[in-house]
Amino acid sequence: MDKKRIAITGSRGTIGIILKDGLPEDFEIIEASLPEVDVRDFGQLKKVARGAFAIIHLAWNSKAENHKNEQIDPDSSLMFLNVYKAAIETGAKRVIMASSIHADTFIGRKGPPASQARALRAGPGLLSPDRTPVPDSPYGANKVFAESMGRYFASKGLEVVCVRFGGVNQRNSPAGAEHPAEERAAWLSHNDLISLIRAILQAESIPNFVLMYAVSDNPGRIHDTSNPFGWMPKDRA
Fold it and tell me: pLDDT for 96-153, tens place per residue?
């Protein structure tokens, strides 16, 4: 059986590198990254997306726009709009859009008691993706915009999954003790990241539009990780 072609924008960033290492066993990976491909250029993006089953959009100008500054970079917004449009025009079935836990404020929020946390994927005390978000930064607000545009393009027939990724890093370990406990509780391991994206890509169909959190099964976990793909995080900080 031929492998499904998956285009990944931002494939040279942290998440992109992890997925390139973890997914080729099951999928043919097509890179859509600078300098060869500029996602701001719709024509270039369409050429790469042609024939792809799905587009995983990770590209973001994080130097100009991140959760620690007060900036919005129009290029980041242009890129996610181009991805949705390119998927529609080239016939790609599915888009996985990288959103962020910063789409809804979580610092200062406490999860359920430790005795309950491991048994819960959803429920009282966990931050649900279904609630109206209060972004923690302009960056977080722009991620909410990316999610909203995903809802719009899902109404046009595109299968869209917006994933509010937790803290993924190259060293594959949670934030240190100098960081807030809530930030450490939002760590996402490499293995859990790969297993989630594989589950989304292998799903037969997507129920209209999906918005979900992706964090590992950490002590003090705050985020509701329920999802329609049967994914359950295995690692624990």
Answer: 999 999 999 998 876 665 545 454 555 557 999 999 999 999 999 999 999 999 999 9
Classify residue 200: in a domain, yes or no: yes
Residue 30 placed within a domain: yes
Q: Which two tokens stand for residue 16?
A: 């992109």
- Please answer whether residues 211 and 229 qualify as being in contact, where contact means their C-beta atoms are separated by less than 8 angstroms: no
Query: Which residues, in sequence order, are CB contacts of 127 under 8 Å at separation 6+?
Result: 104, 106, 109, 213, 222, 223, 224
Structure tokens at 71: 């900036």
CATH number for position 180: 3.40.50.720
Residue 197 placed within a domain? yes
Model confidence over 35-45: pLDDT tens digits? 999 999 999 99
d(CA 71, CA 19) in angstroms, rounded, equals 28
What is the overall mean pLDDT for the chain? Answer: 92
pTM exceeds 0.85 for this model:
yes
